[in-house]
Amino acid sequence: MKQTAVLYPGAGVGHVRPMAELANVFLKHGYDVTMVLVEPPFKLSDSGTTAIDRIAASNPSISFHVLPSLLALDFAAPGKHPFLLMLQLLHYYNEQFEAFLRAIDRKSLHSVVLDMFCIDATDVCVKLGVPPMPASHLIKELLEHPEDEMCKAMMNIWKRNTETMGVLLNTFESLESRAVQSLKGPLCVPERILPPIYCVGPLVGKGAKDEDKAERNECLEWLDAQPDRSVVFLCLGSKGTLSAEQLKEIAVGLDRSGQRFLWSVRMPAGLELELDALLPQGFLERTRGRGLVIKSWAPQMDVLGHRATGAFVTHCGWNSVLEAIVAGVPMLCLPLEAEQKMNKVCMTEDMGVAVELEGYMTGFIKADEVEAKVRLVIEGKEGSQLRARLAALREEAEAALQEGGSSQAAFAQFLLDVDNLERNETLGRHV
């Protein structure tokens, strides 16, 4: 009987996409995969909804199951932080998730992989006797005072993660060797043995296939006409929005730099303007030919993998970081929220793949810095050093995913450990 892995990424395209990549790893090892999605009681952005639909459509071998809606519940409490509402929502979905798992033949269920924010579903897995296995990217910063509700929620998430039987990490060991060795060491959490960790990445998309060129995005056609490694790509993720004042300041810096650029602009909250009205007067006309500004979604993996892309201004979301590393593109860091500032430290100090736009620390990046840093990465010696470092990491990433590589071996060990857990459980019932 073919065994099934159930993957539960919770809500949000930034969580669904890497889970889909992990699902493909399971498929290559001969397992069936079901991805369980929740239907949030609030509307995702059009780009977020479209992206999730696109992921499902492009992965026909993965079975997608959407849990019944919880619209009857009130998740619109005034003043409640959206993150806390999301955790509350996922907690309430436990009942539906349990019903779904109960409908699966226990003998065919291999494992359940939980997103780190779905950690309350561990209770469901323990109740049903399924070895819980949460998938995580990187730690998220703890916020505010220890008695703050957000801080308590985050502390609970990490405490619960240490109670699981293992953690899958979307990274490769040589990229974060110091952190990996610390997590594996006995002194990471005093008087506590942490669960085993499995570095199974980098799990990123492959971009459009050659046969999809009929639907090729217009920005890729524009990139085709640009010289190699000459274009700065600015894209701040699915939720990354800046103020109108900050957008204008970045535009001034790009204009002064004289560099080519491709800029995916998201409208500031509450504004619906044409680009001419949003950006400095005459900017689009002055930069015509060497710059392209789009309000639409940009195919990030295809852009990063294009020969013309020479630098990437990023919000430092982990998916974007991995995609740039796999593509070998140096990064300029503009962290906005969540764990992104922590990622920035790793990117600039440990990995050596990026430089920071220091203005993020004051909440505003000035045109002079944009101009200088863009030139530094595209034309300067430091940019050359970043590219050399990334070339080596790119080879290591490819090697990790190949037969006999560290990530392949880690995933094989994960499968073996799950099998051993099941055997021990069976033996225990017969003793």
TrEMBL record:
Its EC number is 2.4.1.-. InterPro entries: UDP-glycosyltransf_plant, UDP_glucos_trans, UDP_glycos_trans_CS. It is an enzyme of class 2 (transferase). The keyword Glycosyltransferase applies. Coiled coil: none annotated. Pfam families: UDPGT. Signal peptide: none annotated. One of its GO terms (molecular function) is UDP-glucosyltransferase activity. Keywords: Glycosyltransferase, Transferase. Belongs to the UDP-glycosyltransferase family. This is Glycosyltransferase. It comes from Triticum turgidum subsp. durum. The lineage of its organism: Eukaryota, Viridiplantae, Streptophyta, Embryophyta, Tracheophyta.
